[in-house]
Amino acid sequence: MEDQVSKLIRQRDRVLTLAAVSFVFWQGAQLAQNIVQEGG
After folding, report:
1. What is the rounded distance in angstroms from the CA atom of residue 30 to the CA atom of residue 18?
2. Torsion over CA of 24, 25, 30 and 33, rounded to 10 degrees?
3. Gyration radius from the chain CA atoms
4. What pLDDT was estimated at residue 40?
5. How far is residue 15's CA from residue 28's CA, in Å, rounded to a whole number?
6. Distance of alpha carbon 10 from its chain centroid, rounded?
7. Residue 11 vs residue 39, higher pLDDT
8. Distance in angstroms (rounded) separating the CA atoms of residues 2 and 24
9. Half-sphere exposure of 37 toward its Cβ, with a 13 Å CA cutoff?
10. How far apart are CA 20 and CA 3, in angstroms?
11. 1-38 as b/e, with b when 16 or more CB fall inside 10 Å?
12. For residue range 18-37, what is the model confidence (pLDDT) as tens digits?
């Protein structure tokens, strides 16, 4: 049972990390797009 809990915690951490990295890339792309539009 303890192993399954640890496995679920690791999976949750991976999903949260992936979501955070995806969010940062998305925000960076939005920022870059806004900078290009303002400069153009």
Report:
1. 18
2. 140
3. 17
4. 64
5. 20
6. 16
7. 11
8. 33
9. 6
10. 26
11. eeeeeeeeeeeeeeeeeeeeeeeeeeeeeeeeeeeeee
12. 999 999 999 999 999 999 99
Token look-up 């925000």 returns 27
Per-residue DSSP letters for the chain?
-HHHHHHHHHHHHHHHHHHHHHHHHHHHHHHHHHHHHHH-
CA angle 31, 21, 24 (to 5 degrees): 15
Instruction: Report the amino acid identity of residue 24.
Output: V
